[in-house]
Structures are given as structure tokens and as C-alpha cells.
């Protein structure tokens, strides 16, 4: 089962009015090859799928930041790629690729921080929170669960990209990544998720979704089922383009 294909291209201005404008660069060819290689490595028959033939807007330029929500300072114990911490839910492998939009090349050693609600939309102090470095291919994989919908927004995962190899290094991107309404509907009706008492918010009604997907940009995770159907789990792909020389905090 597969509902959507998407890329985040999120180059970030420094948080001051005098910041120099970022140079636009078309990374669509490199990103198309990057994502095809990621699926091929998992044994996906890419010949049967149309995967990133072009970037949605053709040119990798600035995309909006979203407000950092439900964030807590992580300590070194949360530097980990498996953030599940015993939480029940539909298994998800989140594949995050980080590219330097000034060179169109993957960034090795970037610290990617993620945090999300559990299957009933609740955040914890440590569960479903973690950070890990990208490898030589610019990719980091998190073992997690599909997020339930929180009380104040659509289903999403929060994400920050640090330019250095620690969580104390500067941040080049703060944002949220979302899922299509069909995916959240079908998983939301399954065991565990259906006990969520938060009022459900569709993507179109979430102002953070609108901000992240404005100006032609797309902040929706590309989803694929593991095995024949989603109860066995899902893989989610997202690519984040940053300028490591520009910080948001």
C-alpha cells in the first residue's frame, strides 16, 4: 500500500533580518537518484514505481520553518536510533536523508533529532524521543511507531537537524513531517490507535501543516508497507535539504 511521494527541501535562513540570502540550486537530479538508491537497497522494485522523477518545485529553495512543539532537552541517554521504548503501535522505520543544498550532496555526521506522540497522541519525557547521526550516505534510520494524533494537531513527527555531531551544536532546521489523511485514517482505526480520545484534526485544518506545505513545498512522509500490507509495519522516507552554514538557533 502506498499513498504519497514527497520531499522536504528545507534550507534555512539564520534567525536575523540581515542574514545573507541563500543561493538557489537545483538538486532535483541528485535527489531523484538518492531516493531511488534508498529503495533499491531495501529490495523495492523501483521499476514499478514512479519515485521522485523530479522535485515537486524543480528547484531546491527556502521552505518555511514550523514552531518547535512538545520539545524537551535530551540528554546523552537519548542518542539512539530505536526510540520506541516499549510503546505499542504499528512498527515504522523512519528513513531520514539529509542533503546540503549548496552542493546537492548528502551530509555525513549531522545529528537528527526526532520526537513524536504515541498511538493515543500522548508525548512522554523519554519515549519516542531520540537523536542519531547520519552515516556516510547522509541517512539515519529511526525505529519507531506510526504516531497517533495529538490534541492540538494532525498526525506528525517533529524533526530538528543539528549541523554538528551533538545535540548541543547549532540547528539548521526545525520542522514537522506529516502523513496523508488516508494513512492516518486507516491506521487510526486499528487496535490501540482507536482508543485515542483526542479530537482528530485533518491536515487541512492544522496551521503547521499549512505552513510546512506552503509555497509549493511538501512535508509529507513517503510511505510504503512492509510485506503485503501495513499491519506488518511501514517504512517512511523523507529528505531534508539544509544549508549547514545558516542556523535557526
Automatic annotation (TrEMBL):
<protein>
    <recommendedName>
        <fullName>Aromatic compound dioxygenase</fullName>
    </recommendedName>
</protein>
<dbReference type="GO" id="GO:0016702">
    <property type="term" value="F:oxidoreductase activity, acting on single donors with incorporation of molecular oxygen, incorporation of two atoms of oxygen"/>
</dbReference>
<dbReference type="GO" id="GO:0005506">
    <property type="term" value="F:iron ion binding"/>
</dbReference>
<keyword id="KW-0732">Signal</keyword>
<dbReference type="InterPro" id="IPR015889">
    <property type="entry name" value="Intradiol_dOase_core"/>
</dbReference>
<feature type="signal peptide">
    <location>
        <begin position="1"/>
        <end position="19"/>
    </location>
</feature>
